[in-house]
Amino acid sequence: MKIVRTIAELELSGEVGLVPTMGALHDGHRSLFRAAGAENEVVVASLFVNPAQFDVAADLSSYPRGEERDAEIAAAEGVDVLFAPSADEMYPAGFSTWVDPGETGAEGTSRPGHFRGVATVCVKLFDIVQPRRAYFGQKDAQQAAVLRRVVRDLNLDVRIRLLPTVRDGDGLALSSRNVQLSKEERVEALALPRALARGAEAYTRGGDPVAATRSSFNGIPADYVELFEFDGLTILASALRVGNTRLIDNVLLKGELS
Amino acid sequence: MKIVRTIAELELSGEVGLVPTMGALHDGHRSLFRAAGAENEVVVASLFVNPAQFDVAADLSSYPRGEERDAEIAAAEGVDVLFAPSADEMYPAGFSTWVDPGETGAEGTSRPGHFRGVATVCVKLFDIVQPRRAYFGQKDAQQAAVLRRVVRDLNLDVRIRLLPTVRDGDGLALSSRNVQLSKEERVEALALPRALARGAEAYTRGGDPVAATRSSFNGIPADYVELFEFDGLTILASALRVGNTRLIDNVLLKGELS
Question: Is B29 in the same domain as B144?
Fold first, then answer.
């Protein structure tokens, strides 16, 4: 696996699959690398903790980082090129152009500027890497929904692939932020997948999934509980703050990931 | 020359030069078509009166249109493909993604949202047509400056070429909007190139070009008189409202167009 730090050094040919990551790789990323490897001639993983998508400075500074381990995981999963640019390489002096995806709700409302940062860095990565397909996990389904809209609106020639969330045995969705949780917080965090599971059950019975999710948090205040729809999918999503860590999760109520 | 109205029908190969236009073609456009023909294998002209870049509804509705004549001019100047999409083709239902070039001053301040509309439609055209080079006239130098920044910031692989303003014998810069001027307004409009010429003379003598331009308008209120710099160019720009028509113009004080 080649590690590339500048745009100028990135020389690619063939059909490329891109997995954009912020590092701190886990089994969720591994499943994306494997899917990209199965569907493309070349797999590029980007490793860039994108300052523009953090609405809270403390969240950016405490975001877990460990390039050496990340490089080992990526190489082991068949990634051909690890693109690990500096912040100056991605946002040089004088940078001032932003891709604004418009109203997004849920994460967009809770984290002002977040999806603008995501959309901007992903459009840049798509323009730099020119992938045929780009891979995202269902945990970040709203991000994928936003990016599909951006890709359609700006006429980009890349398919946004969405793969199932990978969970730990106890049901917690894998996330780079999980390493920040204390043992007690980790137990608390299980309220999120459990409440969403109650919501999904209510939906299956013809009930109100949002109300059922809310009432299953047992008084813990969720950031939001929202239904959102895109590309034939209906998704029930929520976010929860546990200590200093904010976690998101969602379940698919209708449709099939593609 | 092929006229294409949908993105799906646009099939291009080889090195493409793109001339984005809003139609009502004149000799300024002709010079861009010729430059594009000399430097590329295939010349695409787009013909799209972009609603998103009009800050005033009356300006959009009164903007001159005449596709038949435009198609004749483009064909005569060697354009290979005229891409003339509908507004729905460019901005389908649910469109919500905008490319925001940030602070721009001058035209950007006078026409809120204008450069956001320009940047968005041009990024879309670049993504659709995938040109190697795109051609703009010096009269719209600030637009070219904004687009060069957008192209650099979003890592687009297209060169923004800037060609000299074409003027009528009396000095008025050619513009599609000139046809809207009455005979009297046309005489009034000459104040704009004359004042800019006085500003350029003052600059050559070591004086203040902005002050000299302002004082040469003889009390006619210019929208703005501004110096702006980009890519080694220093440009003195101004805008003037004559009747219901708003005209822009500029002169190059330093540097060479490229």
Answer: yes
